[in-house]
Specification:
This protein is of the alpha/beta class. The protein has a domain at about 120-155 and about 165-195 and about 205-395: P-loop containing nucleotide triphosphate hydrolases (Rossmann fold). It is about 35% helix and about 15% strand. It has 12 helices and 9 strands. The protein has a 6-stranded mixed sheet, sandwiched between helices. Strands 7-8-9 form a 3-stranded antiparallel sheet, with no helix packed on it. Helix 7 (about 255-260) links the parallel strand 4 and strand 5. Helix 10 (about 360-370) crosses helix 11 (about 375-395). The longest helix has 24 residues, at about 375-395. It is found in: Cytoplasm. Its main location: cytoplasm. InterPro entries: G_SEPTIN_dom (IPR030379), P-loop_NTPase (IPR027417), Septin (IPR016491). Keywords: Cytoplasm, GTP-binding, Nucleotide-binding.
Length: about 425
């Protein structure tokens, strides 16, 4: 008599415990559910699938046509939604690859790559660079400080009497390392004092365009070095928040010219500043007018339709595009409302709660910018805008020659 145990009674292989996940909304949703966490001051830590992997690490950072972001978030979503497929027979006879591969007889552990990438990112941290553009008095610094719940941008409430408005656009960059849930992010905020504040604003976007291209050039020179760094410092602009005045009428010609000229070199996200100066009806009418003017001028803001990778992306991004430009209010002051401390602006008729979606769209902007699309902003910068610049430079020069460390030091002098 054979001692072979029939397959149907053979004990199933033990399935190791899944890596712990951090409890926040699924990255597949463009906007996490508006619950107590959104209305309050605290920000929950991002899930492993939403933690960006630093570009330039030359690790497993380009696994999809767009890089890591979609590979991570989509991979995590499917791994979490189909546990039976990895257990070797709970609900399925086995897991089959889409290309017709072999049947998995048990759990292998492929999905742990997400946890491995999360741990690596937590050790190394990542860079995120954001530029704010708009004329003075629109609350640019306040909004950035509100987004990151810290004083990451210089505070400026208009120009002091003894302080002159810059004659030309100045570029001022401030960097901070902020940490949340064990993840470190080097945040650089680039301000542009003097933009749109002159009597003659012709070509006032040129210093900004020059600065953006200079960061691409620095990254490119590091890439072509014979002995390049393991991780190239990333100073490229991942996002440009363009502040629109809440006039309720039309966009200025300067607004259209800026976005038209720079939309192909940086991710532009238009926002309507100080939205509490308009009624809800005025705000909706102005948003529709802005979208129509941008469309008529052929200006595409982030997220661009041609960068949608699949139907899920398209569905999520269509909802975002329909809601843009976000009408926002920023404040770093807290007030007591119904027994809770909330960020807000005090007016004669009450408190405008910054994180209350019924008062303004700040929460939507924050969730879009940080919680669902931060990694994609980095990838579009690297794979689209930077690659466009890189290809142009290589075509111009017939190929850049490798740069030695001495050449780099001389160029910096």
């Amino acid at each position: 008599m054979s001692d072979v145990v029939p397959p149907e009674v053979r004990p199933k292989p033990a399935v190791p415990a899944k890596p712990p996940s951090v409890g926040v909304p699924s990255p597949s949703s463009p906007f996490p559910p508006q619950g107590p966490g959104v209305g309050g001051v605290g920000v929950s830590a991002p899930p492993p699938s939403a933690i960006p992997v630093p570009i330039g690490s030359h690790g497993p950072s380009h696994v999809s046509s767009h890089g890591v972001g979609h590979g991570v978030s989509h991979g995590a979503g499917h791994a979490g939604s189909h546990p039976a497929a990895h257990s070797g027979g709970h609900g399925h006879s086995g897991s089959h690859s889409s290309s017709g591969g072999s049947t998995l007889l048990g759990y292998i552990g492929i999905d742990t790559i997400i946890e491995q990438m999360r741990k690596k990112t937590m050790k190394t941290g990542f860079d995120f660079n954001i530029m704010v553009v708009g004329h003075s008095g629109l609350g640019k610094s306040t909004l950035v400080n509100t987004l990151f719940k810290s004083q990451v941008s210089r505070k400026s409430a208009g120009w002091a009497r003894d302080e002159k408005i810059p004659k030309t656009v100045e570029i001022k960059a401030v960097s901070h390392v902020i940490e949340e849930g064990g993840v470190k992010m080097k945040l650089t905020v680039v301000d542009t004092p003097g933009f749109g504040d002159q009597i003659n604003n012709d070509n006032c976007w040129e210093p900004i365009s020059k600065y953006i291209n200079e960061q691409y050039e620095k990254f490119l020179k590091e890439e072509v070095n014979i002995t390049r760094k393991k991780r190239i410092p990333d100073t490229r602009m991942h996002c440009c928040l363009y502040f629109i005045s809440p006039t309720g009428h039309s966009l200025r010609q300067l607004d259209l010219e800026f976005m038209k000229r720079l939309s192909h070199s940086v991710n532009i996200i238009p926002v309507i500043a100080k939205a509490d100066t308009m009624t809800i009806e005025e705000r909706q009418e102005f948003k529709q007018r802005v979208r129509k003017e941008l469309e008529m001028s052929g200006i595409e803001f982030y997220p661009q339709k041609e960068f949608d990778e699949d139907m899920e992306d398209k569905s999520d991004n269509d909802k975002i595009r329909e809601a843009m430009p976000f009408a926002v209010v920023g404040s770093d002051k807290e007030y007591q409302v119904n027994g809770k401390r909330v960020l807000g602006r005090k007016t004669a008729w009450g408190i405008v709660e910054v994180e209350n979606p019924n008062h303004c769209e700040f929460a939507q902007l924050r969730d879009f910018l940080i919680r669902s699309h931060l990694q994609d902003l980095k990838e579009v910068t690297h794979n689209i805008h930077y690659e466009t610049y890189r290809a142009k430079r290589l075509n111009e020069n017939g190929g850049l020659h490798p740069i030695s460390s001495n050449d780099t030091q001389e160029s910096n002098l």
